[in-house]
Amino acid sequence: MDLVMCNILLKAFLLVGAYGEADVLYRAMPEMDLTPDAVTYSTLIEGYCKSGQIEEALEMFDELRKSSVSSAVCYNRIIGALCKKGMLETAVDVLVELWEKGFDLDIRISRTLLHSIYASGGEKGILNLVYRLERLNSDVCLGMFNDAILLFCKKGNLEAVIEVYMIMRRKGLTITFPSTILTALVDNLRALDAYSLVVNAEESALPFMDVVNYTIIVDGLCKEGFLIKALDLCSFAKQRGVTLNIITYNSLINGLCQQGCLVEALRLYDSLEKPSEVTYGILIDNLCKEGLFLDAENLLDRMESKGLVPNIVIYNSMVDGYCRLGRTEDAMRILSRKMIGRVTPDAFTVSSLIKGYSRKGDMEEALRVFTEFKGNNISADFLGFLSLIKGFCTKGRMEEARSVLREMLVAESVVKLINKVDAELVESESIRGFLVELCEQGRIPQAVKILDEISSAFYPSGRNSSSRQRLQSLKGVSVEEVKKEDYVHDFHSLHSTVSSLCSSGKLKQANEFVISVLSCMPR
């Protein structure tokens, strides 16, 4: 029998589970003047690993190490098997030995090891591995370090990302996933860290970054208020030979507007060769918010003269801006002269007009707008309905307010919004159901109070800043105490408290709490 036939027979024994026979044949090889080769060891190690006999696999692996045979396959196979058994320290020892022998680590085994270590020791486990591997030759660690960064990004361990990055920078290694790191940092409101990583990196520390990578950071810096850093990064990118695009400039223009630098934003716009619809949309919206309607309309005309078509969002900015200042005639002019025939008004358009007329106390016009657009299958949104109801209440026209409330509680967009609240109130009375009950009982002011709190929860501009403090005072409050005193004076506190009780598995207490609060409300 020659070596090839012996290896085939060994594989056959292992396939049928005849491990004893395989071991006997292996031990008899010296008597047959046969010397085990890489195929012999890999066959036996793989067979033992597949059957979960890790001790036998390690014993065979030790015999391989004592021999003159070299096999990267055996090292990779044993590392994978050790990971499955949770023997991670031994797996790392074998990994170091593999690299010291100059073998390549299989990419699948590398990622299996990283995920196994993370599952066992979390962020600290991976960092300990990185610290140990830091002493080895730089090139062999490159792939694993990049995989570690990718894993940390996916898990949101941004401090660990920066730690590994700094180690790679010291070793002069190239990071393969810059956009992954940058996006993760920006998404977690750490654009300043992303900025520092880029501008402080040496030429060889990061690969060439394109305009997309730079724009991600610029946009993040602008949104977080670091406008000077955003402008610095643009200059840095240009020095690196990167040509910025309109998306980058739109981020800068939006950032300038958010910081109140409208003049500078307009100057930047003037320097652009081809502003986009988004560019005009940002500027028109901010001009309207500042009450500069003539400039906004001039910009709208200029946009159209360049062949760009304003969308509904741009028109809504103008309509809403005029309505906020009570200039409903101008808002209607925009609607009739500029919008009709070009874009279809939507729920936001209708609601802006309703709010504008309601602020002026002109409920006849508010109702006319509501009815006219409803006839065209365009309904008001949550805030539009609420403004109409509150306007009628202010005028003492309670039956009309009640009629609008009925329509509101069956409007699809409103039902979806209220259902988001109901979804968290497990085994408690439906908020929508309670509102319907209040409506039928004619208790419109109480219904408006609840609707105001829902509005505060979903539209931040109207949020009551004391809601969190109120929530703190609710901790430990019993049902009996609620009956004695009006602890829950806003919907947000009720919602947060009930949600907390439900997440703790206290469904009965949550149900009792809601019922008690509802029963205490004035009728």
TrEMBL record:
Residues 1-20 form the signal peptide. InterPro entries: PPR_rpt, TPR-like_helical_dom_sf. The keyword Acyltransferase does not apply. It comes from the Eukaryota. Keywords: Repeat, Signal. PPR repeats lie at residues 2-36, 37-71, 210-244, 245-275, 276-310, 311-345, 346-380, 381-415. SUPFAM superfamilies: TPR-like. GO terms for molecular function: mRNA binding. PANTHER family: ATPASE EXPRESSION PROTEIN 3, OS01G0263400 PROTEIN. Belongs to the PPR family. P subfamily. This is Pentatricopeptide repeat-containing protein, mitochondrial.
